[in-house]
Design goal:
It is globular, with a radius of gyration of 17 Å. α5 (209-221) packs across α6 (227-234). It is built from seven helices and twelve strands. By secondary structure, the protein is α/β, with parallel strands linked by helices. The longest helix has 14 residues, at 23-36. The chain has a single domain (3-257), classed as Rossmann fold (3-Layer(aba) Sandwich), CATH 3.40.50.
Length: 263
C-alpha cells in the first residue's frame, strides 16, 4: 500500500490584480504534515501550477495508484465559476479551480476534475482538501492569533479573468459543490456554498484560515482519529468566528468518514 500526495498553493495570479498571501504556506504546511504520515509528496507552487501541470500531476498520481493506495490532493488558491455549457448545472454555472494561468482563461472545471479522478483503479482512495472560495455568525476559536487588517476572500470573480462575457445573474456558489462530485471519496472544504474561505495571517504568518485550524487540530487528534473526529475538532471549536465567518464542510460516504485520517 502506497500513499501519494499533491499539494498546490497559488498566491500569484498574473493579470488579475487578485494575488493572495497564504496559499504557498498552506501547500508547504500540508506537504510537511502528509510527509510525516508517510506520504510521498509533490508540491506545485505559483508558476509551477499551470492548468496543464496540475492536470498532468493529478493524472499521474491517479494513474499510477493501485488498489489499497491513497491519493491526497490539497488545493489552496482562488475558486471561481464559468457559465455552464453542458446544461447540467441548475444555476447555469460550473465551479472551477484557478490555476496560475487563470488570466489566460485556464480554469480547471469541476467536470474536468470528475473525468480526471474517475479514471482511478478500483480500491484507490482519493482525499481532496480545498481551501478556496466560495467558502456563521458565532464567536469561537482563539481570535488572538488572528492578525488585524485581515482576512481576504479566496474568490476570483469571473469578470476579473474572463473579460467581456455574458454571465448569468444567479448568485455565485462555492467550489465545494462541484468538487464533491469530482470522483474523489472524501472532500474537506473550507466553507459552505454561500460563504468564502479566507486568506489571512496568524501571528504574522500568512495562511488560509481553514488550513491553519485543520492542521492545528490534526496535530492534537491522535494518530488513530477518523476523518469525522478530525472534522469535529475543527468545527465548531475553531471555525466559524465573527472575523472568519466560514463553516468547514465534510463530504463523503459514512464509510469514508470513518477511515483513519491519512491512513
Amino acid at each position: 500500500m502506497s500513499k501519494h500526495a499533491l499539494c498546490i498553493g497559488i498566491n500569484d495570479y498574473p493579470g488579475t490584480q487578485n494575488d493572495l498571501s497564504g496559499c504557498v504556506n498552506d501547500a508547504n504546511d500540508w506537504a510537511a504534515a502528509l510527509a510525516a504520515r508517510g506520504f510521498s509528496v509533490l508540491r506545485m507552487l505559483d508558476s509551477q501550477a499551470t492548468k496543464a501541470a496540475m492536470v498532468a500531476a493529478m493524472g499521474g498520481l491517479v494513474g499510477k495508484a493501485v488498489a489499497g493506495d491513497t491519493v491526497a490532493i490539497t488545493y489552496s488558491g482562488h475558486g471561481t465559476w464559468v457559465p455552464d455549457q453542458s446544461g447540467d448545472e441548475p444555476d447555469q454555472r460550473d465551479e472551477a479551480l484557478c490555476p496560475w494561468d487563470i488570466g489566460q482563461g485556464k480554469a480547471l472545471l469541476d467536470d474536468e476534475l470528475h473525468a480526471l479522478l474517475s479514471t482511478r483503479a478500483t480500491g484507490v482512495r482519493i482525499i481532496l482538501i480545498s481551501d478556496s472560495c466560495h467558502s456563521g455568525s458565532v464567536t469561537r476559536g482563539n481570535t488572538s492569533e488572528l492578525d488585524p487588517g485581515m482576512p481576504r476572500a479566496r474568490f476570483l470573480p469571473p469578470e476579473a479573468w474572463m473579460g467581456d462575457v455574458d454571465l448569468p445573474a444567479a448568485m455565485p456558489r462555492r467550489l465545494a459543490g462541484g468538487i464533491a462530485r469530482s470522483g474523489g471519496d472524501l472532500l474537506m472544504a473550507g466553507c459552505l456554498d454561500t460563504q468564502y474561505s479566507w486568506d489571512t495571517r496568524f501571528n504574522a504568518r500568512p495562511n488560509g484560515a481553514f488550513t491553519y485550524y485543520a492542521l492545528k487540530t490534526l496535530a492534537k487528534v491522535g494518530a488513530s482519529a477518523s476523518y469525522t473526529q478530525w472534522f469535529r475538532a475543527i468545527t465548531p471549536a475553531c471555525l466559524p468566528t465573527n472575523q472568519l465567518p466560514q463553516n468547514p464542510q465534510l463530504f463523503g460516504s459514512a464509510t469514508a468518514r470513518k477511515w483513519k485520517v491519512f491512513g
